[in-house]
């Protein structure tokens, strides 16, 4: 299987630039506007990624989340990451930052990603926007990771391929863009697309992106039924089963403000389900979730009371705002649950 998640410790620099951005983003979302047109940066990233056959496309605006998520940027430093990684990797990370001048806490701006395929055959690609010196990044990898990568040059851009059988390839395309993909050829295509004006070629994907692109983080799935598995649903409430079989397209947005987190989801029905029917099915699933939460998790039941479900342009829109007080309660619940299972 080719996967950008395989054996991350073998490529310290790559993990720094890409996977650590995921760590940072997940911390932000733990503290986590509506639709808008794509920015030039977003258009460039979507253009570079293999969108036409992607099962999932998403974006994490790391910089916005840092600025909006309740002072996280000031409280979360490179040293904090050392608590999340082993000593050897921590040392490599610190060395990388010192030698290249690249600080993931301040220099990573956004991460765009796609995934295609099913189950264990899933392949992913990423475009990371960051402030960096591409020449310094390349130099560090040559000098410190030369025995772990194979180097090639394509149209003046250096491509590194993991020399561990996984086929992971990446390139610092310029001082603003990192491309990561399962193969060297895939990175070459991304490099070509970085300087072209071709569209994504996927009208459904573009339409879904436009619904949520104004959010700090978003994800779109153009065809759930093509990639979903309906196995292991024998003991699931029938209202959830109905919802899972009636939904085909999904666009999810998360936006952080100074005092709350706004969630919105746009849901498209399968061919044999009308938007009106889907609205009823979604409301039924929410009611089922509320009933299940009433006894053991009343805070969640109260939050579900705030969910707004409506129809718009043939799709169902589900939205909810969670304030800081409720977020804190959810954080406490998550910690208690984690301690229980530990």
Strand order of the main beta sheet, please?
4-5-6-7-3-2-1-8-9-10-12-11
Q: What structural category characterises the helix and strand content?
A: alpha+beta
The profile of the biggest β sheet is: 12 strands, antiparallel
Order of helices and strands: HHEHHHHHEEHEEEEHHEHHEEHHEEH
Give the overall form. Answer: globular
Radius of gyration: 21 Å
Count the DSSP helices.
Answer: 15
Distance between the termini: 31 Å
Low-pLDDT parts are 1-36, 70-76
Task: Assign a percent range to the helix content.
Answer: 40-55%
Strand content: 15-25%
Average pLDDT rating: 78
Number of domains as seen in the coordinates: 2
Q: Got a strand count?
A: 12
Model description:
With 342 residues, this protein is α+β, with helices and mostly antiparallel strands. It folds into two domains: 8-194, no CATH class; 223-341, no CATH class. It contains 15 helices and twelve strands. It has helices spanning 12-31, 40-48, 62-68, 72-75, 78-81, 87-100, 104-107, 134-145, 184-194, 203-212, 224-227, 238-246, 275-293, 298-304, 324-341, and strands spanning 56-60, 108-116, 123-130, 149-154, 157-162, 169-172, 177-181, 217-221, 247-256, 260-269, 308-312, 315-323. Strands 4-5-6-7-3-2-1-8-9-10-12-11 form a twelve-stranded antiparallel sheet, sandwiched between helices. A hairpin with a 2-residue loop joins strand 4 (149-154) and strand 5.
